[in-house]
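[step 3/7] fold_predict: job queued, chain A
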Amino acid sequence: MKYRYGKFVPDLLDELDMDELMSKLSDLLLASGFRDPYFSGTDDERSMQALYDAILDALLTGGVLPDERLQQLLGEGGDEPSKQRVEELIKQIIERMQESGYVTAAPDLQADQARRQQRQGEQGQPERPARFEVTDKALDFLGFRALRDLLGSLGKSSFGRHDTRDLATGIEASGATKPYEFGDTLNLDASATLLNAIRRGLGRGLAPAMRTGARPQEIDLESEDLVIAQGEYQSSCATVIMLDCSHSMILYGEDRFTPAKRVAMALSQLIRLQYPGDSLKLVLFHDSAEEVPIAQLGRVRVGPYYTNTREGLRMARRLLERQRKDMRQIVMITDGKPSALTQPDGRIYRNAFGLDPLVVAETLREVANCRKAGIMINTFMLARDPDLVAFVRRVAAMCRGKAYFTTPYTLGQYVLMDYLDKKTRTIH
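[step 4/7] structure written:
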């Protein structure tokens, strides 16, 4: 039986770097409401048209295709056949994303209701654009990529290879040895200890026994023989991320909420992969405060308008008081001043003009409660208002924490470096 062989022509979809494409689409997949300036609660960011436009932009400017293949796709001057090729490729990409489990088509409940109304002879609702939903697999992948990119920016050679950090839990013998002193952790260097004992025993008859081939006497260890290995002690840590989701996080022409979500997802991946003994909780604060499962972090959006910092601190403190860890800390990411307060009767007091003395006093009282509970507060501030800077520095001084004044572009580096620096300390 004869076979005919032809030249293999690779498909454009096979040459597409799907992982890189997912990274380029992360801003859309982690949509936080930035494209909804009037805060109407619409889901236009999750429409299929928005996904189509984002994929098109990634193909043209994102570098997910080789240059020669991109030129082949576009053809001559954007003619009609090239437009058809682009549309067909984007359709295949969306199908591939659905097959891979990154996105799913969202159920259109309003369309179903409109069809039922039409069957009953009523006027139907206008047709709503098709939407998609991001899956847990996609969010987990985006968190992993965010962690890898952040660690790369910190100077690590590759993910999982921390040249300046020990990844095991407990005491890791990574330093030089030293003679044992009273009070040191008994992390013995067995080889060096035995060698000291043998050297000391050479003058006590051990050498003649070894020369004659007779059974040597037992080696006696004394305190001066002991040698210990210095290393890094890794403490267990309970962390609560307090994420400001007030409306100011997407105002003023800058999306600050999506980078903050990305950093929180990266920190979650770091703890899950490298420090499984640690715990991480998430608290969103706006007009009030609420605990949100870490698995839902990628889906949260900006909330109501005001910033109830005190209620967020109170909820974070209660979560941490249940944890029995060596270290307990709050990582607060915000860009606004405290402007709301939950009163004893449950009503919300709001004042967005300046630093309200009542709101500030109650917030600092909760900071003092955190200090009494042994909880450190590290604040990552995304704004530079002078009054707000003074307030944040006062919070850091009260609880012996740190205040970082950063931007959405450098936030991840500060958060991860701060966390890693607290994980190890030299022990003797």
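[step 5/7] annotate
Residues 12-134 form one domain.
The CA atoms of residues 74 and 83 lie 7 Å apart.
exit 0
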